[in-house]
Design goal:
Layout lengths: L1 E2 L2 E6 L19 E2 L2 E2 H11 L5 E5 L7 H6 L3 E5 L9 H6 L7 E5 L2 E3 L8 E2 L3 E7 L7 E5 L2 E6 L6 E10 L1 H17 L7 H8 L7 E4 L5 E3 L3 H7 L4 H5 L7 H7 L6 H16 L1 H18 L1 H19 L19 H10 L3 H16 L2 H6 L2 H4 L3 H5 L2 H19 L13 H4 L6 H37 L5 H20 L2 H25 L3 H17 L1 H6 L9 H16 L3 H7 L6 H32 L5 H7 L4 H10 L4 H30 L12 H18 L3 H38 L1
Parallel strand pairs: 2-5, 2-7, 5-6, 10-14
Antiparallel strand pairs: 1-9, 3-4, 7-13, 8-15, 10-13, 11-12, 11-13
Helix pairs in contact: 4-5, 9-10, 9-19, 9-31, 10-31, 11-17, 11-24, 11-26, 11-31, 12-21, 12-26, 13-19, 13-26, 13-28, 13-29, 17-24, 17-25, 17-26, 17-31, 19-20, 19-28, 19-29, 19-30, 19-31, 20-21, 20-29, 20-30, 21-29, 22-26, 24-31, 29-30
C-alpha cells in the first residue's frame, strides 16, 4: 500500500472555451455557487491530510498568490511555457515533486473529498464506469490493470478523470519520460497524460480508483459552467463573440502580423524614395546568390525530391495524418483540385502559352540541339517534379504537425520544434516566422506582376478599349471580391471555387487540343519532351554552367527553384491542412500525380500549340515577339487569335485566370489568417474579421505597386532573395518531421 505525500494542481491554462468569463480570471479561480473551484480541491486535499501542495500557474499567475496566505503548505510554481505548449509543460515545471504524488486539475469541483484519499495500491487514475457512449478518454481494464486507453472515447469502459496517484518509483519513471518527451523529442503539444498512457505504456502497470460520477464535476465550457451555477446562464446563452476585435487582438501574434507588414512597408517606401539605389543594392545581392550560391539552390531542389520519394516508400509513408485508419477528409478529385489551384496555377496558365518562346531565343538551346526538342522540354523540367517536391514534402510535414501531433501554433517555426526544442519559442522561432510571412507577402504581391497584364490585355482586346493601370486595378478588385467571398465561406468555399477552376481549365485545354488543328503534333511533341526530360533529368538538375558561357541555369533553373521556395511558405501549409485522413505517402504521391500531371498537361497542350505554329510556318511567333519589343503578353494574344472562335477562347482564358488567382489567394488568405494567431486548435479557423483583414491587405499592396513598376520588380527580387534562408528552413522542417515521425512510430 502506497500513500500520497504531496499534490500537484495544474492551473496554468487560459480556459479559452470559457471566454469571456476567463478573460480576467484564471479558470480555477472562477467561483461556482459562491466558492472557487480550486478551493474545493485544496480543502478536499487538506481533509485527507495532504498539505504539501504545489500549484502550477501561468495565465494571470499573480492572482493565485492569495492561496498561499489562505492555505498552509501551498506553494506556487510558474510554468513559463504555458502560452506555447500543452499541459505537459506544467507537469514538466513541477517534475521535481512527482514521487508519492497526486496530480489533479484545479478547474474541477470536488463534492466527495474521499475520492482524494491518500492510500492507493497501484499508480493510476480515478475513473467512473460508463455503459453509455462518451467522447472522453476511456480506459479498458483487465485484472485491475489498464491495458489500453482511447482518446476518442467509446462505451462500456472506465472514463478517465483528472485525478491520479503516483508511487515514488513510478513518479521517478514519469519524470524521466517527461524530460525525454519535452526536452529531447520536443513533444510539447501533447497532454502530460499521453506520456504514460501512449508514449511509454509498456513501462507502467497502471490501475484505477473507482468513484461515482457525482463525486466530482469537471467544467470545460460555458455550458457546463452554467449548468453548475445558473448565474452564468447569460454567458452560455450569449452570442459567439469569437469574432470581436478585442478577442482577436489579444490572440494576435505581432511576430507574424505587425513586424512583417512593417518590414514590407519600409522596403516599398525605400523603393519609391530611392529607386536607383534600391535596385542596385538588390541586384548585387541577387547576383551574388545566383552566381556564387547557385549550387545551393540546385542541391536543395534535387535533395528535397529525393527525400520525398524515400519518405513515401519508407515506414514513415504509412503514417495516417489523423487517427490510424481514418478516412480522407475530401475525395481525391476535390483534394487534388485544391492542391493544384492553391499555388501558382494562374502563373502556370500564363507560362504554358509562352515559356517556350523565351527558351527558343536562348543561346544554350542552340548548344543543346534544336528548338523543337529543347524549347518543349525545359518548361516541363522547370515546372515539374522538383518544384512540386517542395509542396509535396512540406505538405506532409505540416499535415503531420497539424493532424498527428495536433500542434496549436500553426506557424512555420512550429514544424521545426522537434529539432529546435524550446528555441522555437525564443528569437530563433520568431525569426523563422517573420521571414516566412515577409516571403508570403512579397511573393503574393509580386505574383500579380506575372500574369495580371495578360488579363488586362485580354479584356481590352475583347472590349476594344485602350489598356490602363486602372483596368488592372479593376481586375484586381474583381479577383479580391471573388476570393474574399470564397474565403469568408471557409474551406467549403475554397473547395467549390477550386472545382470550378478545374472545369474551366479542362475546357480550355480540351478546346485548344481538339480545335487547334494540331492534336497529333501536340501529343507527339509532348511525349518526346517527357522522354527527353526523364532521360536527362539528373544532368538538367545539376548543371551549373561553371564557365558561365550562357548563364542559363542562373537565369532560369535557379530562379524558378527560388520562386517555388518562396511560395512553399503558404501553399503546402494549406495542403497539409486539407490532407487529414490521407497517409504521408498518399499526400506526396498524390501531389505528384495531380499537381505535376495537371501542370505538364497544360504546358504540353498550350505551349506546343504555339510551338507548332512556329515550326510549321503558320505564324512567325518568334518574329512577332521580337518586333513587339519582347512583349510576351501581346504575343500570347496573337497566338490565341489563330484559334477558331478566338474571342470565346479569350473569355474562357480570362475567367480561368481570375478563378485561378482567386483560388490561390483564398487559400493563402486562410493560411495567413491562421499564422496571425498565437495558437489555434485543430479544425479551428481564424475569425471572419481576420480573414477579411488579410484578404484586403494581400490585394492592396499589389494595387499600390502598380504605380511603381520598379518597386514591383524590386519586391519580386526581395522574395527571391528571401528564398535563400527559406531553403535552410525547409531543410530544417523536413529533418524535424523525419525525426518526429520516427519517434511517433516508436511510440
Amino acid at each position: 500500500m502506497y500513500r500520497v505525500k504531496r499534490a500537484i494542481i495544474m492551473a496554468a491554462g487560459k480556459g479559452e472555451r470559457m471566454h469571456p468569463v476567463t478573460e480576467t480570471t484564471p479558470k480555477p479561480l472562477i467561483p461556482v455557487n459562491g466558492k472557487r473551484m480550486i478551493d474545493t480541491v485544496i480543502e478536499a486535499l487538506h481533509e485527507n491530510g495532504i498539505t504539501e501542495i504545489y500549484i502550477v500557474t501561468g495565465f494571470l499567475k499573480e492572482q493565485f498568490e492569495v492561496l498561499t496566505s489562505k492555505y498552509a503548505g501551498v506553494r506556487l510554481i510558474e510554468n513559463p511555457f504555458y502560452e506555447t505548449c500543452n499541459n505537459i509543460s506544467s507537469l514538466y515545471a513541477a517534475r521535481e515533486h512527482l514521487e508519492d504524488c497526486m496530480i489533479l486539475d484545479g478547474d474541477q469541483i470536488i463534492y466527495n473529498p474521499s475520492i482524494l484519499a491518500p492510500e492507493f495500491e497501484r499508480s493510476g487514475y480515478n475513473a467512473v464506469w460508463t455503459d453509455e457512449e462518451t467522447s472522453e478518454w476511456l480506459m479498458t481494464v483487465e485484472d485491475d490493470i489498464v491495458v489500453s486507453c482511447s482518446r476518442t472515447g467509446g462505451s462500456c469502459g472506465w472514463q478517465l478523470y483528472s485525478i491520479s496517484r503516483w508511487s515514488a518509483e513510478d513518479g521517478r519513471l514519469l519524470r524521466r519520460h517527461l524530460e525525454l518527451e519535452f526536452e529531447e523529442r520536443g513533444n510539447r503539444q501533447i497532454y502530460w497524460d499521453d506520456v504514460a498512457l501512449f508514449c511509454h505504456p509498456e513501462e507502467y502497470r497502471l490501475g484505477i480508483k473507482p468513484m461515482q460520477k457525482s463525486d466530482v464535476i469537471e467544467i470545460d465550457s460555458l455550458e457546463e459552467l452554467a449548468a453548475a451555477d445558473a448565474t452564468y446562464a447569460a454567458y452560455a446563452n450569449a452570442p459567439d463573440q469569437s469574432d470581436s476585435p478585442g478577442n482577436d487582438f489579444r490572440k494576435i501574434d505581432p511576430a507574424t502580423t505587425v513586424y512583417p507588414f512593417a518590414a514590407i512597408f519600409a522596403l516599398c517606401l525605400f523603393f519609391i524614395i530611392d529607386p536607383a539605389g534600391s535596385t542596385n543594392a538588390l541586384s548585387v545581392i541577387r547576383g551574388f546568390l545566383g552566381n556564387e550560391m547557385g549550387t545551393y539552390y540546385l542541391a536543395v531542389g534535387l535533395g528535397v525530391l529525393a527525400v520525398s520519394l524515400w519518405v513515401s516508400f519508407s515506414e514513415i509513408g504509412q503514417i495516417t495524418l489523423g487517427k490510424p485508419g481514418e478516412k480522407p477528409q475530401y475525395p481525391f478529385f476535390a483534394w487534388g483540385a485544391m492542391v493544384f489551384t492553391c499555388g501558382l496555377a494562374a502563373d502556370i496558365l500564363f507560362y504554358s502559352f509562352c515559356e517556350w518562346i523565351s527558351y527558343a531565343l536562348e543561346p544554350h538551346i542552340a548548344e543543346m540541339g534544336s528548338i523543337q526538342d529543347w524549347a518543349s522540354t525545359y518548361p516541363l523540367f522547370h515546372w515539374g517534379f522538383i518544384p512540386w517536391s517542395f509542396y509535396a514534402m512540406l505538405a506532409a510535414c505540416f499535415g503531420f504537425m497539424l493532424h498527428v501531433r495536433k500542434r496549436t501554433k500553426q506557424k512555420y517555426s512550429e514544424a521545426c520544434r522537434p529539432i529546435l526544442g524550446d528555441k522555437t519559442d525564443r528569437w530563433q522561432g520568431k525569426v523563422i516566422d517573420i521571414l516566412a510571412v515577409i516571403a508570403l507577402i512579397a511573393g503574393t504581391a509580386t505574383t500579380f506582376s506575372v500574369a495580371t497584364p495578360l488579363l488586362s490585355l485580354a479584356l481590352t482586346t475583347l472590349l476594344g478599349i485602350p489598356g490602363s493601370k486602372f483596368m488592372t486595378i479593376a481586375i484586381l478588385a474583381v479577383i479580391c471580391l471573388v476570393y474574399t467571398i470564397a474565403v469568408l465561406k471557409g474551406i467549403e468555399g475554397v473547395s467549390w471555387l477550386a472545382n470550378a477552376c478545374m472545369a474551366l481549365f479542362g475546357l480550355l485545354l480540351g478546346y485548344v487540343l481538339i480545335f487547334g488543328g494540331q492534336p497529333v503534333y501536340i501529343i507527339e511533341t509532348g511525349f518526346s519532351a517527357l522522354g527527353n526530360m526523364m532521360q536527362n533529368f539528373i544532368g538538367l538538375s545539376t548543371w551549373t554552367d561553371a564557365l558561365r558561357t550562357t548563364n542559363f541555369p542562373q537565369n532560369w533553373t535557379i530562379f524558378f527553384w527560388a520562386y517555388w521556395m518562396v511560395w512553399a511558405v503558404a501553399s503546402p501549409f494549406f495542403m497539409g491542412s486539407i490532407s487529414r485522413g490521407r497517409t504521408v505517402k498518399q499526400v506526396i504521391l498524390g501531389t505528384y500525380i495531380f499537381g505535376v500531371a495537371s501542370t505538364l498537361i497544360s504546358f504540353i497542350i498550350l505551349g506546343n500549340y504555339g510551338l507548332g505554329l512556329q515550326m510549321h510556318g503558320a505564324m512567325d511567333v518568334l518574329g512577332f515577339f521580337e518586333s513587339s519589343g519582347g512583349d510576351l503578353y501581346a504575343t500570347v494574344i496573337e497566338v490565341i487569335k489563330t484559334l477558331p472562335l478566338w474571342r470565346i477562347v479569350l473569355v474562357i482564358l480570362v475567367t480561368s485566370m481570375i478563378a485561378f488567382y482567386a483560388t490561390s489567394f483564398d487559400s493563402i488568405t486562410l493560411v495567413a489568417s491562421q499564422y496571425s494567431y498565437r495558437e489555434l486548435q485543430e479544425g479551428q479557423e481564424a475569425s471572419r474579421k481576420m480573414k477579411l483583414f488579410w484578404a484586403l491587405l494581400l490585394i492592396m499592396l499589389p494595387i499600390a505597386l502598380i504605380f511603381s513598376e520598379g518597386s514591383m520588380n524590386n519586391l519580386q527580387t526581395v522574395s527571391i532573395i528571401a528564398a535563400f534562408p527559406i531553403g535552410m528552413v525547409i531543410m530544417l522542417i523536413i529533418a524535424s518531421f523525419i525525426k518526429d515521425a520516427k519517434a511517433y512510430i516508436n511510440e
